[in-house]
Amino acid sequence: MMNKPGRSGFMRIIHATGYSQKGLRAAWQHEEAFRQEAILAAILLPTAFWLGQTALERIALIIPVFLVVIVELVNSAIEAAIDRISMDRHPLSGQAKDIGSAAVLMSLLLCAVSWGLIIQQRFF
């Protein structure tokens, strides 16, 4: 298998970082769900350091928050790719979007369970 032509080494990392920033900016500008989850993450991440009493508790609070944001980004990318292909309704397009949405829901449930269990242990 041949490597793709283009940048390599440190310059590839620099350009990849730029593409990532461009993607985050696009998600912020065009995806309300991403904005809501990013704001929630901005609140929950500092709270995790206060709520978690051990390093393991903190990581158990932090990882699901990042996972929600990551899954939302992937879901938004799936939706954009589907819409780029065609705006026509098609069962497979709908199925792909629904599955992406289900992945976001599952990540949100994981986050809620993780936070709920640690809050319960700490306060009840």
In short:
This protein has 124 residues and is mainly α.
What is the alpha-carbon Rg in Å? 18 Å
Instruction: Assign the CATH class.
Output: Mainly Alpha
How far apart are the termini? 57 Å
What CATH architecture would you give?
A: Orthogonal Bundle
CATH topology: Helix Hairpins
What is the β-strand count? Answer: 0
Q: What is the element string, with H for helices and E for strands?
A: HHHH
Q: What's the domain count?
A: 1
Name the structural class: mainly alpha
Strand content: under 5%
Average residue-wise pLDDT: 94
Sum up the overall morphology in one term.
globular
Contiguous uncertain segments of 5+ residues: none
Summarize the main sheet.
none
Portion of residues in helices? over 70%
How many helices? The count is: 4
Q: Can you walk through the features of this model?
A:
With 124 residues, the protein is mostly helical. The mean pLDDT is 94. The termini are far apart. The chain has 4 helices and no strands. It has one domain (32-123): Orthogonal Bundle (Helix Hairpins).
